[in-house]
Design goal:
Layout (H helix, E strand, L loop, with lengths): L3 H35 L6 E6 L7 H16 L4 E6 L10 H6 L5 E2 L25 H8 L2 H11 L3 E16 L13 E4 L3 H9 L3 E4 L5 H7 L4 E4 L1 H6 L8 E17 H6 L2 H36 L3 E4 L2 H11 L1 H10 L1 H9 L1
Bound molecules: (2S)-2-hydroxybutanedioic acid (LMR).
């Protein structure tokens, strides 16, 4: 039977035990707080990462993952803030913001570099790549190096190349044969190759920012658009289009860009953490991109809101033949040697 005296001792014991636990946990918090606290606001490096797509896309997920890992691995010395959905800067504003130091990372589609760097339009050529492997051979090889070097001239650095995927094309009528495109108007990214691609099919184009595509399709300002399923699903393009053709006629990929001066001004240890983490996230992003697009295409089909057409071999052959002249038309713009290098891949 526990007497009063020992009960009192037990209570006092429990009281002190709780005190110790509280102090320890506060100590723990304070060490984390101390990390953040230790890292004064002045010391903390804030990296603003702006992009135009939804968070649940390959690029959106990779940007979030990068932010999480960097914040963790630098114990708060670096804070990566991600701004998706054109929330901070939309297409056409990102480059200026990067060069003026208002953002430190952007990841535009390669097509959006072509106004300044026509050589990057290589990635827009129709049916140039048949698989992600072929694209990666170009990106990670001599072609990628040559294209990245061009960016340095404008104080930008290519840190990584991420995938979205192969483009499909939608409109409000079935697009099965090349002649089905005649007299329609398509939204494109600002690329001379994409303009030539649709012109070769007898269609007109309007280059516009990504965040304006849905309303342009809904209002009928344009009749159709091309994008991988992950963008079509997350931006609900399938709700305002009645037909989708699975053509894999082009590739959509990204360059993770930074401002050269900013990057070179970073402490070496920090730059190493960022580069190592980016390499890791790039590999992860490339693994999930294909899966994400397959999954999103299934969700688009399940919606029952759009009719999905798969090209027959004969139809695909007709598209390739119809689009072949684009290569010759774009030789001077892109550079004949680059096109040859890519074809050999
Ligand atoms: C587009 O403008 O269609 C795409 O580049 C958007 C994106 O970043 O995937």
């Amino acid at each position: 039977m526990i007497n009063m005296e020992s009960e009192k001792k037990i209570r006092i014991g429990i009281f002190w035990l709780v005190c110790v636990l509280v102090v320890l946990s506060l100590g723990g918090c304070s060490s984390r707080a101390r990390d953040m606290e230790q890292v004064s606001k002045e010391e903390r490096i804030v990296i603003r990462f702006s992009h135009v797509v939804a968070e649940s896309t390959p690029k959106g997920r990779a940007a979030k993952r990068f932010a999480l890992l960097v914040n963790e691995r630098t114990n708060g010395r670096v804070e990566v803030q991600v701004y998706p959905n054109s929330r901070l800067y939309k297409d056409g504003e990102e480059f200026k913001a990067l060069l003026e130091g208002n953002v430190q990372l952007i990841a535009p589609a390669t097509a959006k570099l072509t106004e300044w760097f026509p050589e990057w339009a290589l990635f827009d050529l129709p049916f140039l790549f048949e698989s992600y492997e072929e694209v990666h051979r170009a990106m990670d090889g001599e072609i990628g190096r040559r294209l990245s070097d061009l960016l340095l001239k404008r104080n930008m650095m290519a840190l990584a190349m991420w995938d979205n995927g192969f483009k499909q094309v939608s409109a409000n009528r079935p697009l099965l044969w090349p002649q089905d495109f005649a007299s329609l108007t398509f939204r494109i990214m600002p690329s001379k190759v994409l303009e030539a691609q649709f012109a070769q099919l007898g269609a007109k184009t309007v280059a516009m920012p990504f965040n304006e595509v849905y309303s342009a399709l809904e209002s009928g300002m344009v009749d159709g658009a091309e994008n991988p399923p992950s963008n079509m699903l997350t931006k609900k393009f399938y709700e305002v289009q009645s037909h989708l053709t699975i053509s894999n006629h082009g590739y959509l990929g990204y360059v993770v860009l930074t401002n050269r001066q900013f990057w070179e001004s970073l402490p070496e240890d920090i730059r190493k953490v960022l580069e190592d983490t980016l390499r890791e996230v790039t590999q992860w992003e490339r693994e999930i991109a294909a899966q994400e697009n397959e999954k999103d295409l299934e969700l688009i089909k399940k919606s029952g809101k759009i009719q999905v057409h798969y090209l027959t071999e004969e139809q695909k052959k007709a598209w390739k033949e119809a689009l072949q002249p684009v290569y010759r038309q774009m030789e001077e713009f892109i550079g004949k040697d680059l096109i040859e290098m890519a074809r050999k891949l």
